[in-house]
Structure formats: structure tokens, C-alpha cells
Amino acid sequence: MALDGCEVSLRQGIGVAPGVCVGRAVVLDDAEQNANLGSEAVVLVARTFSPEDVLSMDVKLVAGFVAATGGPTAPAGIVAAGAGLVAVLACRSYDEIQTGDLLVLDGATGDVVVNPSPKTLELYQKRGSQYSLDKEYLQGDDYLAAETRDGLKIDLLASVDLVDALPHAITSGATGIGLLRSEFYYLTDDGPPSESFLTALYQHGLSSVAPLPVTIRCLDLHGGAQVAGFSPGSCQNPALGLKGVRFLQAYPELFKTQLRALYRASASGKLRILLPMIGSLDELLAVKALLVEVQDELCGAGVMLGADVEVGMMIEVPSAVFMAPYLAREVDFFVIGSNDLIQYGLALDRLDGAVAHLYDPLHPAILQMIEQVVRAGHGAGIAVGLSGEMAAVGLYTPLLVGLGLDWLSMQVQALSLVKKMIRTSLAGECTALAEHLLGQSSARISRQYLQEYVQDNYADVGVFVA
Ligand code: PEP
Ligand code: MG
Fold this sequence. Notes:
By secondary structure, this protein is an alpha/beta fold.
């Protein structure tokens, strides 16, 4: 929403994290994303940005970016939030912006203001200062445990994209790493990284936060991303193609190289290996056989492996939800990937801004699926965590606590808010809330109920949540 009293030329999109940035626009051609940047920080504008584009942005030169594509869980937005960049996605009138326009972006509301008046600029700058104050207030509890008022502990873990970001995640209040997306090390022009490079990288990451756990997800390519020399096939829709574990099975040597590096590094800390996008028991068993093969090979070569490596799988597709009771017997933990569970459960392409408004974690089918997975996991005696953007939104925290998740993994910026929400909660009331929402058949009604519930019960924190 634009600020009251502003005469603005406003383009609305989807913001990825609270923050305001101001800068001159540099409009990039899709084919040529290298801009000639001056010394002032600019706001990049393009139809689309890949996560690799975002990772290569120099935060001293780039204050933020606007894209026409993407939705609330688009990988480029996730990486932007992790890097502390202000970003607005799914801004459909982005092509009306010209290079040289002065832009203000509000990363919470998705406002993009073009050539603001001095008064409008001042109002947005005040809003930016308020976001910083809110953040400071929420960070006050960073050193305390994520525990409800009646003593239920929930592990708050961080989701990160790069190994170097691990220590900062821990000093920001995480008690471990719930998701290290390993794909960014594969997306260079030089092809996949070598076993020795990956071994050193993982050793460094594990030891940098030991003895806290680091969950490293095996290579999971998003939205048509390619590893040089390895084709994901010429599919029409990459989200339904050779993705996640399907890609790894198509290229077992590539997969085994990563697995060898993981096990070689495993003695350096507490490693949890996470398998992406498993869709069936047969798929899981085939992958587990490969894991055993790699371990035997390394043991045969005299490599010392970590004693307590855990192996878990992501629950991201409806078939895995249905099969959860069987899958749970074969792994040490489940991680619900809420971004993909919503993508596949509701048939919404994460990269398509045109369907972004339909993305709804409160869809009754999504809540039912989460509940089923938690029940199946706990029935088999394994822990169940949840990652993805749903975990980072304070509004959903009491519901997720009530649904019985053992841990939540989120972008580092969200840890303080979610911890505050947990510390304000009563576990018994969260359970009653979850039961109430599981009985609803309309996401709209559930949202209204939840918003009122949070306003009534989280007065101190609620202001940051809605
Ligand atoms: C998810 O799907 O929720 C998830 C955490 O993984 P990614 O966003 O990398 O697909
Ligand atoms: Mg996923």
C-alpha cells in the first residue's frame, strides 16, 4: 500500500523482506545483465533475475532490484532476502521504468515509486528507519531460547545459500543450519565443482559452526538452471522435469561426487544430508543404496567418516505426503519444503507472477498435508521440520507450533521475529488454533481468523506480523 498523502507514480509488486531503498534505475536488457554502474548504488530493473544474478550483485553498487517475474517464493527473491537486498518481484508495469528514473522500493509492501516528490521520498525514508527500529527491537531476544511461555522448545534454524554465511546465522540466533542450498557452487561456467573443492568447502562450513548441525541439501536445480555440461533435458516446464533427485539419478557420477565430498567432510562437525524432491519409496531406496555405496567406497579407502551423519528427505510433492508413513521408516528426519509443497500441491509455478496471488500457505489442502506429514513422521519416531518462506512469516508461527513441527528453518532476517512469536506463545493455545484452522475449508476465512487471533494474542509483536 502506498503511504497516505503521497502523490506517487506507483508500480505494485511483491516485496521479499522489510527494507526501503532509494536509487537511480538501471534498466537491463534480459540478454545482457551487466550494467555499467557508476559509484552511486543503483536499483536494477529487468524482466527476470536468476538467483545467480542476485548472488553476483555487489551490495555496494546495487541497492535493490525490480523484476517483472517471480512470486513470493521465487529463488531470486529468497537469495535477495538472504543477501540483505531490497527487492520487488512480479512488478508487471516494470517496463514503464526508464534508466535514470529515481526509484524508491519498499521491500515489505512491494511498493515501487518512480520519481517521488521530496515529500514522498521523506515519508518512505521514515518508513525505512521504522523498519530498522523494529528490527532492533526484535533482536533484543536473539540470545534467548525459542521456547513458548509454557516450556515447549522449537529449534529455530537458518536457511542459507552460501557456506560463508553460516557463522552469521548462528550469531543471529539460529541453533543450527536447517537448509544449506548447495546448488550455487554448481552454477559457474566452469562446470561442476571438484570433489576436493566440495570437501574443503563442507569441512569449512561444518567446522565453522560445530557442534551445531548443518543440513546440506544435495544439488537441487531451480527453474531451468543448468550445470555446465549436464542437461536437465529440453522440458517445457522445468519445475516438472529433471529436477531435484531426478536430476541426481540421471547423473549418478555427479551425485556421487557430492556425496563423497559430504562424507569426507562429515568428521568436521554435525552433518545432516538432505535429499530433495523425493517422490516415491523406490526413489528413496535407490538413493539410499547409492549413499551406502559411497560410504563403503570411502571406508575401503580408509577415510574416517563422522559417526552420526543423519539422512533426511524433503517433503515437497503430494506423492511424498501420501507415502510419508512408509518414507518415514527409511530416514532420520523430514523437512517439509513449504515453497515447493505449495507449488506442487496447488499447481502454481513459483516463477510465474501471474499466479502469485494464488500462493496461499493457509489453503486447507496445505494445512492438511503438513498435519499428515507431522503425524507420519512422529508416528515413526522421527523429527519433522519445515523450511521455505512460510516458516519466515510471523503470522504463521503460532499455527506451525500448533501443528507440531520440531523445527523451523528460515532466512536469517526472520529469526528474531519468529523467536519473539514463539516466546509470546502458549503451546496449548497453538494446538487449539491449529485444530481450529484444520477444520476450515476456506483459506480466506482462516486468514481472517488468524489475523484477528494474532492481533489479540500477540499485541507486542503483532504489529510486525500482518
Ligand atoms: C522449499 O521448497 O520450501 C525449499 C525450502 O526449498 P527451495 O526453496 O530451495 O525449493
Ligand atoms: Mg524446494
